[in-house]
Amino acid sequence: MNRTPKHHPTESTLLRFAAGRLPASHALVVAAHLEGCPACRAGVRAAEIVGGALLAEMPAAVMAEDALTRALARLDEPASKPAPPPPARDLAPGVPLPAALRDLAVPRWRWMAPGIHRIALDIPGAAPGERAYLLRVAPGTELPEHGHEGEEITCILSGSFSDTTGTYGPGDVAEMDEEGDHRPVADAGVPCICLIATQGRLRMRGLLARLIQPLVGV
Ligand SMILES: [Zn+2]
Prior knowledge:
Oligomer: single chain
Bound molecules: zinc ion
Distance between the termini: 27 Å
CATH topology: Jelly Rolls
Structural class: alpha+beta
């Protein structure tokens, strides 16, 4: 992901990530985005510093007079970035596994539907109903229209897809809540590879999609 992302997690999602309040699977998707997004890394770091400064002052009712000044001064310091470990393997030619996934068992791609392959991920600490998976969608392939019982967050690792909310390329994040339905289409060019976390089941539209849903386990 050498491109600067155009679509970022919401502020609420970044704050929940910084506070350790995101579901484990969703946090993994945000971590994959942060690998390619200096702006969101800085945002998360700022939230962690402010949160840490507030915690450091507890349980005293009055904060040190210079607490805010010190916290703000630290925001200007360059972020220390540990060197990433060498890539374990590629998901496709030129598409390395995100560092966020390197400690996980990542099985092989499995056929899910014409033009669609999937790798289900077993996330430590995931709550019941949480799912995380990698999806590889052939160029031009349309996913069945679906809604969500809970939040869905996607980070694009390669290629791009479009839906009514826009076009998403490498590094971009798309968030959907239970209100929205969408029908993403992989754009022309290279396959679209995404890391996706969902809560609850997908609500499939259309008879065929509903028939295959139990078979593919989404
Ligand atoms: Zn970002």
